[in-house]
Amino acid sequence: MKKLLIFDDDKSILEVISIIFEENGYKVEISETSHDIIQKVTEFQPDVILMDNWIPNIGGVEATRLLKNHEDFKHIPVIYVTANNDIEMLAQKASADDFVAKPFNLEDLEEKVAYHMNS
Questions:
Q1: Measured between alpha carbons, how far is 72 from 88 in angstroms, rounded to an integer?
Q2: pLDDT tens for residues 52-91?
Q3: Domain ranges in the chain?
Q4: Response regulatory domain location, by residue (predicted)?
Q5: Contact call for residues 80 and 87 (beta carbons, < 8 A)
Q6: Is the pLDDT at 15 greater than 90, yes or no?
Q7: What is the CB neighbour count within 10 angstroms for residue 111?
Q8: Dist CA 95 CA 74 (whole Å)
Q9: 1-9+56-119 adopts what CATH topology?
Q10: What b/e readout covers 58-92, taking b as 16+ CB neighbours within 10 angstroms?
């Protein structure tokens, strides 16, 4: 089963994304904090990660960097999600593999996740 790990502190977004991806056959795990990213990824072993920029306690850029600097997990695609205007720059700074601007079109998000699941 395809596994998606979502880091976001917005409960309504977490709920919507979880429902949509679960209906499409994904196993979804959510986290409202990012400082424990290595532990969460170790336990869940996701195929793709969605990362919000404004997530406690260390923020999306730092959390993504921790992951990308980890030998075992740097191959896991991270899709950066934020309402910031400079999303492209933030995604690059974090070494994310892709990005989606909030508010996002769910179809775009599904396509990006599916693309990275299969790459």
A1: 25
A2: 999 999 999 999 999 999 999 999 999 999 988 899 999 9
A3: 1-9+56-119
A4: 3-117
A5: yes
A6: yes
A7: 12
A8: 10
A9: Rossmann fold (3.40.50)
A10: ebbbbbbbbbbeeeebeebbbbbbbebeebeebbe
